Amino acid sequence: MLTFVGLGLYDERSVTLAGRDAIRDADRVFAEFYTSRLVGTDLDSLESFHDTDIEVRDRAGIEQDPEPVLEAAESADVAFLTAGDTMVSTTHTDLRLRAEKRGIETRIVHGTTAQTAAGSLTGLQNYRFGKATTLPFEKAHGGDGVPDSVVATIEDNRTRDLHTLVYLDIKVDDPHWSDSDDTYMTADRAASLLSAAFPDLLAVVVARAGSPDPLVVADTLENLADRTFGGPLHLLVIPGDRHMIEEEALQAIATDD
């Protein structure tokens, strides 16, 4: 049995009770933290909270060499942990399909996602979000500024009056980068990049979703570029036309007018 467990958004306590039970009952526990991280905790705290050893795999260890995970799941109960919801990344879908082809039973225990949290924290209606996009660090995509695909996604959503969730890049397990204070793209950096294409556009920063002190700030991209928003993780939402209730929610919830 291979059980995929989403750990939620922030720390070791963000996991659901069902997820905690699955980890407790597993014979072996694997995890990856290159697609996202729980910034409110660390590996030692996770292991202590769940009273188990966690074998962390890097990108190559999941995408190119998943054999240790699959072999373990053929003869034992294995839990595979990720931040957020475990099936948001295609990497995890690929691992599940590999398991199914080998006759390994799979199960999913969901966790809270950044997308649902962004809608909840901002008051923007979940069913009015269009296609999401990721804004990479410039060197990560080999060019300057914002990739055309990101601009096209925002423009296409706006023509249909839909909101755009912009995930911000994380430099984790990437051969182009070493760990540094610059591991996480900040919302002000993202706003600065996007303001070249959309200078007067309203955007909403969501910082530290799932933590005890989330922050929501609405302003133009140009103004957001000159602000700081504290520790990671950060998201940007580019709203389309707002329903009256959405407008009232932003005015009440966001810290700026």
Automatic annotation (TrEMBL):
GO molecular function, one term: diphthine synthase activity
Keywords: Methyltransferase, S-adenosyl-L-methionine, Transferase
Record CDD domains: DHP5_DphB (cd11647)
Pathway assigned to this chain's UniProt record: Protein modification; peptidyl-diphthamide biosynthesis
Record-linked PANTHER family: DIPHTHINE METHYL ESTER SYNTHASE (PTHR10882:SF0), DIPHTHINE SYNTHASE (PTHR10882)
Domain Tetrapyrrole methylase, residue spans: 1-224
Quaternary structure note: Homodimer.
Assigned EC number: 2.1.1.98
Gene assigned in the entry: dph5
Protein function: S-adenosyl-L-methionine-dependent methyltransferase that catalyzes the trimethylation of the amino group of the modified target histidine residue in translation elongation factor 2 (EF-2), to form an intermediate called diphthine. The three successive methylation reactions represent the second step of diphthamide biosynthesis.
Protein's recorded name: Diphthine synthase
Family recorded in the similarity comment: Belongs to the diphthine synthase family.
InterPro entries: 4pyrrol_Mease, 4pyrrol_Methylase_sf, 4pyrrole_Mease_sub1, 4pyrrole_Mease_sub2, Dphthn_synthase
Origin: domain of life: Archaea
Catalytic activity reported: 2-[(3S)-amino-3-carboxypropyl]-L-histidyl-[translation elongation factor 2] + 3 S-adenosyl-L-methionine = diphthine-[translation elongation factor 2] + 3 S-adenosyl-L-homocysteine + 3 H(+)
Gene Ontology biological process terms from the UniProt entry: methylation
Chain positions recorded as S-adenosyl-L-methionine binding sites: L9, D85, V88, T113, A114, L168, A209, H234
